[in-house]
Protein backbone atom coordinates (compact mmCIF):
# COMPACT_ATOMS: atom_id res chain seq x y z
CA UNK A 1 0.00 0.00 0.00
CA UNK A 2 1.24 3.47 -0.81
CA UNK A 3 1.34 6.53 1.36
CA UNK A 4 -0.78 9.60 0.74
CA UNK A 5 -0.06 12.87 2.49
CA UNK A 6 -2.41 15.83 2.20
CA UNK A 7 -1.95 19.27 3.72
CA UNK A 8 -4.55 21.29 5.51
CA UNK A 9 -4.22 24.48 7.49
CA UNK A 10 -6.00 26.21 10.31
CA UNK A 11 -5.22 29.77 11.34
CA UNK A 12 -1.91 28.97 13.03
CA UNK A 13 -1.41 25.23 12.58
CA UNK A 14 -0.55 23.09 9.58
CA UNK A 15 -2.08 19.62 9.47
CA UNK A 16 -0.60 16.71 7.51
CA UNK A 17 -3.11 13.91 6.97
CA UNK A 18 -1.15 10.68 6.55
CA UNK A 19 -2.88 7.68 4.97
CA UNK A 20 -1.59 4.22 4.10
CA UNK A 21 1.67 2.63 5.21
CA UNK A 22 4.67 4.50 6.58
CA UNK A 23 7.75 2.40 5.93
CA UNK A 24 11.24 2.72 4.48
CA UNK A 25 9.95 3.21 0.95
CA UNK A 26 7.30 5.80 1.83
CA UNK A 27 8.94 7.64 4.74
CA UNK A 28 10.78 10.09 2.44
CA UNK A 29 7.41 11.30 1.11
CA UNK A 30 6.27 12.28 4.60
CA UNK A 31 9.59 13.94 5.35
CA UNK A 32 9.38 15.96 2.11
CA UNK A 33 5.82 17.06 2.83
CA UNK A 34 6.65 17.99 6.42
CA UNK A 35 9.75 19.88 5.32
CA UNK A 36 7.72 21.91 2.84
CA UNK A 37 5.11 22.75 5.45
CA UNK A 38 7.70 23.59 8.10
CA UNK A 39 9.54 25.94 5.74
CA UNK A 40 6.31 27.64 4.68
CA UNK A 41 4.59 27.74 8.06
CA UNK A 42 6.75 27.97 11.13
CA UNK A 43 4.49 27.50 14.25
CA UNK A 44 2.62 24.30 15.01
CA UNK A 45 2.38 21.11 13.00
CA UNK A 46 -0.11 18.28 13.51
CA UNK A 47 0.35 14.82 12.03
CA UNK A 48 -3.10 13.27 11.60
CA UNK A 49 -2.38 9.53 11.76
CA UNK A 50 -6.01 8.43 11.87
CA UNK A 51 -5.69 6.67 8.50
CA UNK A 52 -2.21 5.23 8.98
CA UNK A 53 -2.39 1.42 8.77
CA UNK A 54 1.28 0.62 9.44
CA UNK A 55 4.43 2.29 10.71
CA UNK A 56 7.88 0.67 10.88
CA UNK A 57 11.19 1.92 12.29
CA UNK A 58 11.85 4.09 9.22
CA UNK A 59 8.51 5.79 9.78
CA UNK A 60 9.31 6.34 13.43
CA UNK A 61 12.67 7.80 12.42
CA UNK A 62 10.93 10.30 10.16
CA UNK A 63 8.57 11.33 12.95
CA UNK A 64 11.60 11.99 15.17
CA UNK A 65 13.27 13.99 12.37
CA UNK A 66 10.11 16.05 11.95
CA UNK A 67 9.95 16.61 15.72
CA UNK A 68 13.53 17.88 15.74
CA UNK A 69 12.98 20.15 12.74
CA UNK A 70 9.77 21.67 14.11
CA UNK A 71 11.24 22.10 17.61
CA UNK A 72 14.42 23.58 16.15
CA UNK A 73 12.32 26.18 14.34
CA UNK A 74 10.55 27.10 17.59
CA UNK A 75 7.35 25.22 16.77
CA UNK A 76 5.44 22.36 18.33
CA UNK A 77 4.62 18.97 16.83
CA UNK A 78 1.54 16.96 17.83
CA UNK A 79 0.16 13.65 16.65
CA UNK A 80 -3.60 13.33 16.29
CA UNK A 81 -5.81 10.25 16.43
CA UNK A 82 -3.22 7.54 15.79
CA UNK A 83 -4.74 4.17 14.93
CA UNK A 84 -4.47 1.60 17.75
CA UNK A 85 -1.57 -0.25 16.11
CA UNK A 86 0.34 2.97 15.49
CA UNK A 87 -0.40 4.20 19.02
CA UNK A 88 1.03 1.01 20.47
CA UNK A 89 4.23 1.45 18.43
CA UNK A 90 4.52 5.07 19.60
CA UNK A 91 4.04 3.96 23.20
CA UNK A 92 6.44 0.99 23.01
CA UNK A 93 9.22 3.11 21.55
CA UNK A 94 8.70 6.04 23.92
CA UNK A 95 7.95 8.48 21.12
CA UNK A 96 4.57 9.23 22.71
CA UNK A 97 6.50 10.68 25.66
CA UNK A 98 8.42 13.09 23.39
CA UNK A 99 5.55 14.10 21.10
CA UNK A 100 2.15 15.38 22.19
CA UNK A 101 -0.52 12.79 21.23
CA UNK A 102 -4.22 13.71 21.12
CA UNK A 103 -7.39 11.74 20.34
CA UNK A 104 -8.66 14.29 17.79
CA UNK A 105 -7.27 16.72 15.25
CA UNK A 106 -9.17 19.57 16.91
CA UNK A 107 -7.57 18.86 20.29
CA UNK A 108 -4.11 18.65 18.72
CA UNK A 109 -4.60 21.92 16.84
CA UNK A 110 -5.81 23.66 19.99
CA UNK A 111 -2.78 22.43 21.89
CA UNK A 112 -0.14 23.54 19.38
CA UNK A 113 -1.89 26.61 18.02
UniProtKB/TrEMBL annotation:
Stored Pfam families: STAS
STAS domain boundaries: 3-112
Family of this protein: Belongs to the anti-sigma-factor antagonist family.
Name of the protein in its database record: Anti-sigma factor antagonist
Amino acid sequence: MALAVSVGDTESVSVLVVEGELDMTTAPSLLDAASSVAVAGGGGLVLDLGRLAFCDSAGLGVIVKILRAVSGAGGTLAIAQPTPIVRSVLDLTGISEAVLVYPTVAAACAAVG
